[in-house]
């Protein structure tokens, strides 16, 4: 009775502040709606002890309770995330426990490899359920905004290869090559000699299989290798959706390593997610805590300003910076729709718990990018102090003539 009384008081307070399409179902069959419109999200508390998750409705608390099956949540993922954020804002303070606390993780080869395997080595078939056919697991590029996912991902790769002005026969290193889409395109379209590196065994095997199927073994090599162990010189270097795993403390070392591998007149491009808090804090209300626990162990998002500072400390000069935040919001929205459309197949492949983890994660990413809690920048760079003669004077070369 105490739990129900306390919960009733909490619900009355929330309903006084904000209306939302939410229904809460209690263990005794009682229902409480938070607006006059039909509920789009229903949270069911199967027992009185579950009330504590609602009383402190951080993204971490409610997300963890949902993932572990301690509460039941019904509704589309986007609606779920919007409702939970509304509950957090109306109940919690952005100070103290749920502030945007900056955290530094320890990164070394062993920890980084374990984190990558945890996230990526679910199964290739799992990722095939919601990615495009080329399995490009990073922000797409929408020239008009109405492209399908496969088209937008192909345009993203072409956009990158134009940005770095890849030339026929050049050498290219792709750090965090995923399932090989970028190096395959670079070899097919430019005849570039490519090395792609990954720490995921599943990605390695499928990427190599795709290289063989395309008849490009003479141009493309896929390695299971840490970026810190690569040797040699490359005309072009790309890193797409990888530097989030590097860690704030190690960013200068990361960029220094890229610089040491880059030819004197070479061009590199870093494509990665950043935080929007100037102090490099986590997303508010425990969102970062949830992602670290369940999705990306030891991942760290830093502000663009810190990225550019670390790049300069690492001996690289930024030539061009482009914000693709809106593009990633749309990409994640399509992934979420695909994920929900394949829900039963994904549960069969990965189990109910992992399904719930990714259900929360993908929708949370849509919300984060839409609300400017997260961003995505492509940064074209080269060795500091050089005259980048390989790049034209204007940005015109980056965009096809048909673009609006």
UniProtKB/TrEMBL annotation:
Entries under Pfam families matching the protein: CMAS, DUF7884
Gene Ontology biological-process entries: lipid biosynthetic process; methylation
Keyword Methyltransferase listed: yes
GO molecular function: methyltransferase activity
SUPFAM superfamilies, A to Z: S-adenosyl-L-methionine-dependent methyltransferases (SSF53335)
Keywords: Lipid metabolism, Methyltransferase, S-adenosyl-L-methionine, Transferase
Positions of the DUF7884 domain: 14-95
Keyword Transferase belongs to the record: yes
Active site positions: 365
Family stated for the protein in its record: Belongs to the CFA/CMAS family.
Protein name as annotated: Methyltransferase domain-containing protein
């Amino acid at each position: 009775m105490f739990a129900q009384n306390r919960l009733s008081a909490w619900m009355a307070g929330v309903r006084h502040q904000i209306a939302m399409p939410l229904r809460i179902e209690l263990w005794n069959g009682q229902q409480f709606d938070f607006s006059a419109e039909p509920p789009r999200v229903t949270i069911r508390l199967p027992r009185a002890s579950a009330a504590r998750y609602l009383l402190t409705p951080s993204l971490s608390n409610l997300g963890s309770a949902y993932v572990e099956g301690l509460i039941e949540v019904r509704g589309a993922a986007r609606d779920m995330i919007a409702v939970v954020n509304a509950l957090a804002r109306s109940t919690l303070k952005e100070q103290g426990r749920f502030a945007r606390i900056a955290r530094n993780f320890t990164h070394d080869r062993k920890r980084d490899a374990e984190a990558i395997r945890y996230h990526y080595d679910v199964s290739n078939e799992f990722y095939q359920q919601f990615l495009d056919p080329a399995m490009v697991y990073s922000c797409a590029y929408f020239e008009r905004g109405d492209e399908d996912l496969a088209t937008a991902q192909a345009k993203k790769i072409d956009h990158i290869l134009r940005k770095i002005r890849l030339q026929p026969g050049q050498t290219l290193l792709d750090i965090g090559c995923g399932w090989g889409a970028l190096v395959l395109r670079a070899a097919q379209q430019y005849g570039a000699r490519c090395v792609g590196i990954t720490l995921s065994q599943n990605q390695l095997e499928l990427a190599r299989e795709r290289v063989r199927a395309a008849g490009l073994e003479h141009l493309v090599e896929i390695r299971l290798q840490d970026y810190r162990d690569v040797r040699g010189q490359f005309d072009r270097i790309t890193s797409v959706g990888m530097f989030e795993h590097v860690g704030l403390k190690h960013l200068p070392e990361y960029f220094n390593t890229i610089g040491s591998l880059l030819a004197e007149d070479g061009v590199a491009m870093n494509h990665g997610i950043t935080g929007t808090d100037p102090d490099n804090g986590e997303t508010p209300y425990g969102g970062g805590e949830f992602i670290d626990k369940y999705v990306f162990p030891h991942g760290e998002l830093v502000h663009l300003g810190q990225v550019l500072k670390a790049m300069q400390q690492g001996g690289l000069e930024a030539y061009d910076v482009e914000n693709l935040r809106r593009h990633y919001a749309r990409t994640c929205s399509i992934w979420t729709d695909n994920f929900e459309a394949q829900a039963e197949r994904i549960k069969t492949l990965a189990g109910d718990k992992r399904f719930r983890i990714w259900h929360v994660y993908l929708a949370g990413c849509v919300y984060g990018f839409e609300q400017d809690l997260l961003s995505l920048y492509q940064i074209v760079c080269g060795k500091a102090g050089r005259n980048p003669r390989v790049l034209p004077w204007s940005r015109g070369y980056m965009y096809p003539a048909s673009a609006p």
